[in-house]
Design brief:
Helix content is about 35%, strand content about 15%. It is α/β, with parallel strands linked by helices.
Length: about 400
């Protein structure tokens, strides 16, 4: 008898994460065939030679003798207290160590907090474009991700009036990614204030994804959303992966502030889920206190002359010279969301077909814009992590491919 085909769970039917999808699998095949692939599809600092601060590594080594047992399900106290002190430095005074959960990266905590919150047919307001884990974390639990537009013509900053029009009786939460992945937008205080007021008016949980909080360029200003939200529950996400270049440690945190007295049952549910997975990676937790205290080494990378700043400059200059591309200059994070001028392609332009051609012909891997839950197909995302000279070379290859594709359609 032939065994039946083993099917995937129906829960995954609408779950997508194309950043590591078919294109990434094809890149792996090309690497096995001996090709060098420039992987601009994910923000993975260690793959481009970045290293975590030495003090973090020392902190882990010196505390390895304490890392054999499970920790408390919420994480070790020094790590949670360090997050509280960071919050207090930002003017958020109602957090305590008991309100902080350490997770195996922010990704685990996003899934955990959504699992504790959502029921089938609930709705969550998610930005478009978004980091696709947010959409996935909603739909995998049977709820609906309602995407609010962050339009290119508005610098990818949302319009609070458009957002307000999407609220229904089923809306449970609103996600705000600031500084933004994938666009690099940093939201003005006035916009964040209106979003916070909307959330409080409708008693929506605020999910503030702020893992790029220190990664700002020129005169951009980061406003912690929790400083504007005290009449509803606000969860603020941060971690060691980006600012501290330590993706492999898988250490993130979520801090709960605002209206906690009416969220006791929900917070107990988060604690239950944290207990079920026992605890987060313990050795990496010992780096948190050292990371958040003292001098922030990311500042050397985001100023003129710093590597991230100069790679950003290389992208902006390359795009400015191109007849095929435009970009809203990223004010924060480690990405640029580049637009292709579709007028040069009368037969049509498809971001996924372009990304595949770029991989096959130039051995450069980018993330198509549609990976980020947008309705248009004329964008792609690159990371700012390569050296500036390498990025200039890559941008030249992208421009050359676009020129060839445009010529074929004339």
């Amino acid at each position: 008898m032939t065994a039946p085909e083993l099917k995937a769970s129906r829960h995954l039917a609408d779950v997508k994460y194309e950043i590591r999808g078919a294109l990434a699998r094809r890149a792996d095949e090309l690497e096995r065939d001996g090709y060098d692939i420039v992987k601009l599809n994910i923000g993975n600092p260690g793959a481009f030679g970045f290293r975590m601060p030495d003090t973090m590594r020392v902190a882990m080594v010196q505390n390895l003798h304490q890392a054999d047992p499970y920790s408390h399900q919420k994480g070790i106290f020094p790590a949670r207290e360090a997050v509280v002190m960071q919050q207090q430095d930002r003017g958020i005074m109602d957090a305590s160590a008991d309100d902080v959960f350490i997770g195996n990266g922010v990704s685990e905590l996003i899934m955990m907090t959504m699992r504790a919150l959502l029921n089938p047919d609930d709705e969550v307001l998610v930005p478009s474009p978004d980091y696709p884990l947010w959409t996935a974390s909603v739909v995998i639990h049977g709820a609906k991700a309602v995407h609010y537009p962050c339009r290119p013509e508005n610098g990818f900053v949302p319009d609070p009036a458009e957002l307000a029009a999407l609220v229904t009786p089923r809306t449970r939460a609103i996600v705000v990614i600031n500084p933004n992945n994938p666009t690099g937008a940093v939201y003005p205080r006035a916009v964040l204030t209106q979003i916070a007021a909307l959330a409080e008016r409708h008693h929506l949980v605020v999910c503030a994804d702020e893992i790029y909080d220190h990664m700002l360029y020129d005169d951009a200003e980061y406003i912690p959303l929790a400083t504007l939200t005290d009449k509803t529950l606000c969860m603020t996400f941060g971690g060691l992966s980006k600012i501290y270049r330590a993706c492999g440690l898988r250490v993130g945190w979520v801090s709960f502030t605002g209206e906690k007295s009416r969220a006791r049952e929900y917070l107990r549910a988060v604690d239950l889920l944290a207990s079920l997975r026992l605890c987060a990676n313990v050795p990496g937790q010992f780096a948190v206190q050292t990371a958040l205290g003292g001098r922030q080494s990311i500042e050397d990378l985001i100023r003129p002359g710093g590597r991230l700043y100069e790679t950003r400059r290389a992208i902006l200059e390359s795009v400015a010279k191109s007849p095929y591309m435009s970009v809203v200059a990223p004010a924060g994070s480690m990405y640029a969301f580049i637009r292709v001028d579709t007028a040069a392609f009368p037969a049509g332009f498809d971001d996924e077909e372009f990304a595949l051609a770029l991989l096959e012909e130039k051995h450069v891997l980018v993330a198509p814009g549609t990976s980020f839950n947008v309705p248009y197909k004329d964008h792609f995302r690159v990371t700012l992590l390569p050296q500036p000279d390498q990025m200039r070379e890559v941008m030249g290859q992208i421009d050359a491919l676009l020129a060839d594709m445009a010529a074929e359609q004339r």
